[in-house]
Amino acid sequence: MISSASVYLLTLAFIATLFGIIEQKTQIKAFKLIPGVVMIYAVSMIFAGFGMFGDNEAIKNIYLLTKTNLLPAMLFLMLLQVDLRHFFKLGKSLLIAYVLAVFSLACGFVAVTLLFGFNPSEAGAFGALSGSWMGGTANMIAVGSALGVSQEAYGYVLIVDSVNYTVWVMFLLFLVPFAKYFNAFTNSAQKMACLDAIGCACTIGAKRYWLLIFFALIVSFISQFISWHVEIFNSTTTIVLMASVFGVLGSFTKLRDVNGSSEVATSMLYLLVALIGSKAVFENFSSVGVYVLAGFVILMIHAVLMVAGAKIFKLDLFSIAVASLANIGGAASAPILAATYNKSLASVGVLMAVMGYIIGTFGGLAVGHLLIGLAK
Asked: Which among 9, 48, 80, 280 could disulfide-bond with 151, CB atoms 3.0 to 4.6 Å apart, if both were Cys?
């Protein structure tokens, strides 16, 4: 059993680093079906299940200290990559499709909470999942932390996120050859908007990790300092919101052009996932099936509303499919789907997915609090 706080943190860092390197540097097919973050969580959880991590005060304190400081730092660096100016250059149909995707997913989460009769704990878990399906795993952790989601519930929604996402990607790719029939149904002309220089300039020049870490830790401290004096719902929510605001503001400065923010943010995310997994001890997996079923019901409601919206606003299949996957799949898969329609449009998928970093946190918090309110 690991009883030393430093060894505990070093072990989690090793797990996060190992799977991060394997995912990025190898061509193992398993990572195309199961994201690296899920594997990191699973291994960390298995270690915890076998009692390898002690439950003393030193480990509890290092867990809380690391998570509290890393979460706002990660959010800040993640949001530096957003360029709002590019987002508004998207065509009208793409903007409508993106808003429709967010709205339909929110409706799906609300409907499922009422249909399945979730209790506040389950509703909070799906609130965290809404953060992921409107943004990404980082948003899920931020929203889940703010809502006080249990470590076990994190494990359930990670499974739902992985299983349902995999099926959804395959389904959307399957639909690509039928685009002309769908477009005829919605009376839409195929709108292929070619955008250049989408995203940010943060992949140009030398990587300046230490500079980014320095600013990220400053933002983390300031966000926590504000939370000591002003609370929005609770202290964690305040920290999450403040870090997000600082990240958006920072994206309008020259910090957005500093290379390396994506790598540092991803490293912090992996360690956070390992931390959360180290506290998850499952007594049984009886609820997983219900969670996965609920996830598919959300996707079904989302699909119906997207098709109805496409008919009303005369949207083409490319627009609604990429908008959907940009929310549910994120930057890893939306560009691939967009490029399947036309290679020059991969940047559209990137931009929509990056925008989800903002929407995922604020939208997830709003949906999460609504779900918990409905569950009471």
From this structure: 280
